[in-house]
Structures are given as structure tokens and as C-alpha cells.
From TrEMBL:
Cofactor: Mg(2+)
Catalytic activity, as annotated: (7,8-dihydropterin-6-yl)methyl diphosphate + 4-aminobenzoate = 7,8-dihydropteroate + diphosphate
GO cellular component, one term: cytosol
Name of the protein in its database record: Dihydropteroate synthase
Function: Catalyzes the condensation of para-aminobenzoate (pABA) with 6-hydroxymethyl-7,8-dihydropterin diphosphate (DHPt-PP) to form 7,8-dihydropteroate (H2Pte), the immediate precursor of folate derivatives.
Keyword Transferase: yes
UniProt record, GO biological process: folic acid biosynthetic process; tetrahydrofolate biosynthetic process
Alphabetical keyword list: Folate biosynthesis, Magnesium, Metal-binding, Transferase
Domain called Pterin-binding: residue spans: 19-267
Enzyme class: transferase
Magnesium recorded as keyword: yes
Length: 277
């Protein structure tokens, strides 16, 4: 697999050499898996240190829950949650930081605090170009996730994803964003039912020609369904299975809550599926 270096401000990531692991750090009171665990600075910092010790290449900081039925918060509230921990991680730990937000003003504050990547669950399509302007100005990579408000697809689901990402590319082109800075996320669990998530996971390789892929399946509802309705904290092994499937399909990054177990799975799967030399 061809290697590709992507500059992330004062850091860089290398895609294609091995699967990168993004560790999730939710500094929220209401995220579906870990809400309330890390919403003070000390506990969040300890968790960031643990994620890195366990093998995370990127720490993804989120300040607003995006679980089904979540309550949208103001940009000011979100900034107050994410900026202190991003500043602390940036000053004290040698890692790449991504900011999980679809609001350009939150992303801007996070970048000033030390974030290296923007992780946008609406793939540059939430606002009227403000996020795209910020991506261009900052010259940082963006993770563009597929999203929609319902589970209705009038055509083949992979074609729908491709059309969404083509729209993202058009926005990027309009604002002069280098396409090499865009990482695609199929958005499992967002505007998709259990069967649709399973189909996308089984056909992820069909997106490979569009760019690098991030897989964010960690502990999601479709995994629970496949495990006979196991609760969130009992979906680790199911998540590991999706990581291995994703690597076989050609993903570049996996976004997970449990870094250690998934990192080990990556080492084995990379040794089997990634071409050497």
C-alpha cells in the first residue's frame, strides 16, 4: 500500500504504512459510551495519557455528544469544554490532536489551543463555507464524515456515500483545499440503521479510490445488535472485529474507545493484510 505523509501543522501523520489508532476522549456529560467520565481537566488528562500509553496515534477530543437524541449546545459551551484539555495535551504530551466538531468557531478555538486535525461529522456541509474557509486558512487535514438526518436512501447506499463525498470535494475545490488533506469517514451510526451499517462495513473497499478512510465503529448500536443486544461496555470484542474487517477492506485509521485491544488487533491484521515493501 502506498504511503502518504500528511502535514498536521507542527505534527504529521503517515498513512499506508500501518493502521493508525485514534483514541476517543469525550469531555462531555452525555456521550453514549463514556459521558461524564472525563468532563473535568484532571480525569481527561489522565485518560489522554492512558490512550497514548495504550498506543493511540491521535487523540480525538469532543465536547458535544452526537449520540441519537443529543441536545445541541452553544459554541461557547463547547469551547469551554475542549480548549483547556487541548491546551494541556498540546503542552505536555507528544501526540496528534483532532477536534471533533462541526462548528467552525469551535474548530478555530481548538486549533489555537493546539489541535492538529479537524474531525467534522458533516463533511464541510453543515454551514455556508465557514468551516471550509478555516480548513483552507489553517492548512490542516479534515476528516469529512458522511451524515444525514434520516435512514432513507433512494439508491444504492455506497453510491449515496460517494455522492455526498463528491459534494464535499466540490466545496473543498471551491475554497482551495488540497484534496490530499481530506480523510473520509463513512459515518457508521449516523443516519443509518443496523443493516445499512453492516452493508457499508462489508463494502468499505468501494470507497478506497476516493481517498484515505477512517472507520468509526466503536461500540455502536449495530455491534450491540450483532452481540444479542449487549450494552455499550460489553462491545469491546465486537469493536475489535470491525477493526480487523476495516483493515482487510483498506481503512487507514480506526477511531476507538478501547485503544489497547484495538492496537493489538491492528498489529496482527496489518501483518497479514498490508503489503510489505
Amino acid at each position: 500500500m502506498k504511503m502518504k505523509k500528511i502535514s498536521c501543522g507542527n505534527k504529521e501523520i503517515i498513512l499506508g504504512e500501518r493502521t493508525l489508532v485514534m483514541g476517543i476522549l469525550n469531555v462531555t456529560p452525555d456521550s453514549f459510551s463514556d459521558g461524564g467520565k472525563y468532563n473535568n481537566l484532571d480525569s481527561a488528562m489522565k485518560q489522554a495519557e492512558k490512550l497514548i500509553l495504550d498506543g493511540a496515534d491521535i487523540i480525538d477530543v469532543g465536547g458535544e455528544s452526537t449520540r441519537p437524541g443529543h441536545i445541541q449546545i452553544s459554541s461557547e459551551e463547547e469551547i469551554s469544554r475542549v480548549v483547556p484539555i487541548i491546551e494541556k495535551i498540546s503542552k505536555n504530551l507528544d501526540t496528534v490532536i483532532s477536534i471533533d466538531t462541526y462548528k467552525y468557531d469551535v474548530a478555530e478555538a481548538a486549533i489555537k489551543a493546539g489541535a492538529n486535525i479537524i474531525n467534522d461529522i458533516w463533511g464541510l456541509q453543515y454551514d455556508n463555507g465557514e468551516m471550509a474557509e478555516l480548513v483552507k486558512k489553517s492548512n490542516l487535514p479534515i476528516i469529512a464524515m458522511h451524515n444525514q438526518n434520516d435512514e432513507i436512501y433512494s439508491k444504492d447506499i455506497m453510491l449515496s456515500l460517494r455522492e455526498f463525498f463528491e459534494k464535499t470535494f466540490k466545496i473543498a475545490d471551491k475554497y482551495g483545499i488540497d484534496r490530499d488533506k481530506i480523510i473520509l469517514d463513512p459515518g457508521l451510526g449516523f443516519g443509518k440503521n443496523v443493516e445499512q451499517n453492516i452493508e457499508i462495513l462489508s463494502r468499505l473497499n468501494e470507497l478506497r479510490d476516493m481517498g484515505p478512510i477512517l472507520l468509526g465503529a466503536s461500540k455502536k448500536r449495530f455491534i450491540g445488535k450483532l452481540l444479542n443486544d449487549l450494552p455499550f461496555d460489553e462491545r469491546v470484542e465486537g469493536t475489535v472485529a470491525t477493526t480487523v474487517i476495516g483493515i482487510e477492506k483498506g481503512v487507514d485509521i480506526v477511531r476507538v474507545h478501547n485503544v489497547l485491544e484495538n492496537k493489538r488487533a491492528c498489529l496482527v491484521a496489518d501483518g497479514i493484510y498490508r503489503k510489505r515493501g
